[in-house]
Amino acid sequence: MGLLDLFIASSIPVLKVLLITGLGTFLALDRVDILREDARKHVNNVVFYVFNPALVASKLAETVTDDSIVKLWFMPLNILITFIIGSILGWILVQLTRPPPHLRGLIVGCCAAGNLGNMFLIMIPAVCKEKGSPFGAPDVCQSYGLGYVSLSMAIGAIYLWSYVYNIVRASAAGNTEESTKHYIGKSSRESSAAELGSCIEPLLPSKEPLASEHRVDQCALPGTTQVEMEDSGNKQLLRKLLGNINWKTIFAPSTIGAIVGFTIGLIPYIRKIMIGGDAPLHVIHDTASLLGEGAIPTLTLIVGGNLLRGIQGSGMRKSIIFGIIFARYIALPLIGIFIVKGALRLGFIPADPLYQFVLLLQFAVPPAMNIGVITQLFGAGESECSVIMLWAYALASISLTLWSTLFMWLVA
């Protein structure tokens, strides 16, 4: 099988994504005014609360079984590795470029989270249908491929909405706090100092040798020992740390959809009554599948509409864009080749070319489109995210095609 055939087979899916993205940008133009900013925000909410969880739940329920989970155990670990390495690269980029506080979470998130869902759902079936594909019969390839993609999409959604969502939220909240602190006047600080004066050590040394210890005792509760004070402080710190975790965001709608999908797919009784044409409750699964099918084109159109801001410009520094492109399209794919090939040699993954291709591709995809949804939910870094997505998905047509060709050659 020639490299030209592999190149054509890998370029078709990327072109499909670019065409839909271009349509979204066209619909967002002022003279067309169909996918305007407020419309994109409302549709974002529909994708977040309805389409994405329905897509994840329906695909997992249909394709994940006990046998497939045992076979695919390495995939969640592989995705976790992409997030860890991407986060390290993003942290290095933040240290080098020193961006504004509200962009730090966005930069780390773009380096860590790849498009592990809808990009794969478009690419894998298209690759299977191409004549030059090295993955065998199209129907068999597509059947197994959807199982791999469903698990990739579910695990990616769990990591995205439990990790990237919270670092972007923390970054946006940190920027708000810094802005508030900037406007606190000197009088408020003096007022705070006065309130704490009774428990503050005097500037001049006291004539009494044990005055400092006496003041500490005055600030503590009567009858409290030093060990009890330390335990109380540790409990307060633990309570504060746990209280700062937004548990609702960890169980985002897509995460709940993944839990539902795993439950249906892995419990034989529930699977029997919901999956298949003869199942008594198959209408529930069919409805979820129908809703989920709207997630991919809708989300891609929204990304295209958001790219309009990137075309118009937002003052985003070129060094940040270049760093994200380098991390996602050069560093991560090269590291991914060593990881997947090492796992194959150690016997962690089966000698399945399509499975290996999906694992390799998880290191080379552009940033997750849902990062744009997250920035719009918090209203922080929307225009900067649009610029990043513009360049990332414009260059994806070249990078992803070249890496896909190399990956097919490696596994064929």
TrEMBL record:
Membrane topology label: Multi-pass membrane protein
GO cellular component: endoplasmic reticulum membrane
GO biological process: auxin-activated signaling pathway; endoplasmic reticulum to cytosol auxin transport
Classification via InterPro entries: Mem_transp_PIN-like, PILS1/3/4/5/7
Keywords in alphabetical order: Auxin signaling pathway, Endoplasmic reticulum, Membrane, Transmembrane, Transmembrane helix, Transport
Subcellular location: Endoplasmic reticulum membrane
Recorded superkingdom: Eukaryota
Transmembrane segments: 6-30, 73-94, 106-126, 146-165, 249-270, 290-308, 320-342, 354-378, 390-411
One Pfam family of this chain: Mem_trans
Similarity annotation: Belongs to the auxin efflux carrier (TC 2.A.69.2) family.
Main function: Involved in cellular auxin homeostasis by regulating auxin metabolism. Regulates intracellular auxin accumulation at the endoplasmic reticulum and thus auxin availability for nuclear auxin signaling.
Protein name listed in UniProt: Auxin efflux carrier family protein
Organism lineage string: Eukaryota, Viridiplantae, Streptophyta, Embryophyta, Tracheophyta
